[in-house]
Amino acid sequence: MQRVRPLTGQPGPVGAVKIAPSVLSADFGALAEAVGEVSPVADWLHVDVMDGHFVPNLTVGPPVVASLRRHSGLFFDCHLMMTNPEAYLEAFRDAGADSCTVHVELGRTGELVALMRTLGLRAGLAANPDTPFEALAPHLHLVDLVLCMTVFPGFAGQSFIPDVLAKVARVREAIDRRGLAVDLEVDGGIDEQTAPLAAAAGANVLVAGSAVFGRDRPWQACQMIRAAASRARATPGLAPPVAGEGPAGGG
């Protein structure tokens, strides 16, 4: 019988603004301390997992997730930039992951989501900046989270790609129109200036790495990004037009 580990962290209300600091930009020599500095003000902890195949970099695996889990009760949001995530999902679940996100570019989306459900994980689906909305659309009802990458995955510290906002807006429109309980996340170049743009387009989960852990007071950076995103969501008319319905063009 499959052993299912209860979720450790709580994801919070679907659609609420959530800040997810990315440990990719933290000091790996003092990772637990870095996470502890942001835990009181963060909602999720974002863990970027890279295999050196799907993206040209290597980062962390289940042992690091397990080590962090001993120091944090945050919701662990693991982004698996891997060619074969199915081989590691159970290990991440056992290490303490609450949610795993796989890439739509891999194919096998239905199979991967079904496996995550069996393991008791929340299921996320990611798309690279140049992957169109149409690749995500058939799967929105299957998942708990859609991640629109606002940089090309592989390295921290890249610049935000604003053209992705049209796709974010299309995903948000589809989620709302279909009444789906799905969080919409953005990752890449998110800071006080870009968070409001992403939030206005419809994103509610904001992954920030360098803009948090690159600051002298990372906890304050989280608070400032949250405030900027919340103000944008409260201001009518900031969201860009849905692609295909105005000058934003196709997603």
Describe this structure in words.
The chain has 251 residues and is an alpha/beta fold. The protein has one domain (18-233): Aldolase class I (TIM Barrel, Alpha-Beta Barrel). Helix content is 31%, strand content 17%. Strands 1-8-7-6-5-4-3-2 form an 8-stranded parallel beta sheet. Helix 7 links the parallel strand 7 (183-187) and strand 8. Helix 2 (62-69) packs parallel to helix 3 (89-95) and helix 7 (195-201) runs parallel beside helix 9. The chain is globular, with a radius of gyration of 17 Å. The termini are far apart. 49% of the residues are buried.
Short description:
It is built from nine helices and eight strands. The chain has 251 residues and is α/β, with parallel strands linked by helices. An eight-stranded parallel β-sheet has the order 1-8-7-6-5-4-3-2.
* Computed CA radius of gyration, to the nearest angstrom: 17 Å
Q: What's the mean pLDDT score?
A: 90
Determine the fraction of residues in helical runs and give it as a percent range.
Answer: 25-40%
Number of strands: 8
Structural class by helix and strand composition = alpha/beta
State the fourth-level CATH superfamily.
Aldolase class I
